[in-house]
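for the writeup, i need someone to sanity check this before i put it in the appendix. the sequnce is what the collaborator sent (i think, or maybe the updated version? ugh). structure was predicted straight from it, no edits. if anything looks off just tell me and ill rerun, i have time this weekend
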Amino acid sequence: MRNSGTSEPWRVGVLFSRSGCMALIEETQLRGTLTAIDEINEAGGINGRPIEPVMYDPASEASSFGHCAKRLMVADGVTTIFGCYTSSSRKAVLPVVERLNGLLWYPTLYEGFEFSPNVIYTGAAPNQNSVELCRYLMEHYGKRFYFVGSDYVYPRESNRIMRELVRHNGGEVVGERYLNLRAKRRDFVPVMRDIRDAAPNVIFSTVVGDSTVYLYQSYADLGFDSKTMPIASLTTTEAEIKAMGYDVGEGHITAAPYFQGLSGERNTAFVSRFKSRYGEDQETNMCLEAAYFQVHIFAKALAQTNSMDTEILRPTVLGSEVLAPQGKVSINPLCGHTDLWTRVGRANRRGQFDLVYESLAPVRADPYLIGYGRSIA
């Protein structure tokens, strides 16, 4: 910990993949992080000291995230790390920050059922996306679900939760397939044929990364109709819709706390600043937005504590709130997760999402679904 009178920068770790199969979405999280850091530094930094990001590219390899986290904390001397998209990468970093008493800021929706005093979770927990998505799908499309996911911890655990919601509300899971994280377009062809035979009302996707693009393109190749059998997801953002083609993504459903098209001056200004930095053709998304606002929560706490010591910083973070582009959000002091908005959107021909559901206020984080029965009725 540096002397409070120094002008040295506050050094923080940044771990997002800029290469490999997850770079499509993680590059946007990196941009959200750097946008926030630049805003803070342009406003004078924290107590007169700039934030300096120390960045590594784990190249979409979960084990590399753990190695890079250790390097950041041991060799580079940082105690706070912003990073990770997949649950596999988070779980690789977790023992490092716990053993060395660091603080990981994790800006991605995930499967829930985890708590660590060394993690601040700023992405959605299942009660903030899965519960309402299931309700909406069953009311508007039907009760026959087909699950398709990437083969790692998040999809399997997320599907476990969705399966309980579906079955305990009179629905049925008529098929379930998992593909390699690096699956290509051709790998989805037999899955689509199986879906055609199973005739579900909804395809629930937990496919991530580049494979998301191939899933939706394979769906379009077989001539399925999103009006009668959409792909619904918790992970498909504006970034993936752009990559697959706006016509391919049109009509499909995503549940998220944030969409670029949200109304309001704060989000309009955020989107404008982002596009002025990265280009008018670049989109924001829920993962980018969480990566952005969590840096501002960190900065607010750091300004109060003037210390990067986890034991001093974390208690100030808990209970803090900030006006994010999605609306007011706050760190729930009971679980270290974030109280976020619940929204469901349908992709349109412009690559944006039209809201079909929006909560009236931020939804309290409940990562263990303690406050929810299995019935959504």
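The longest strand covers residues 172-179. The two ends are 52 Å apart (CA to CA).
thx in advance!!
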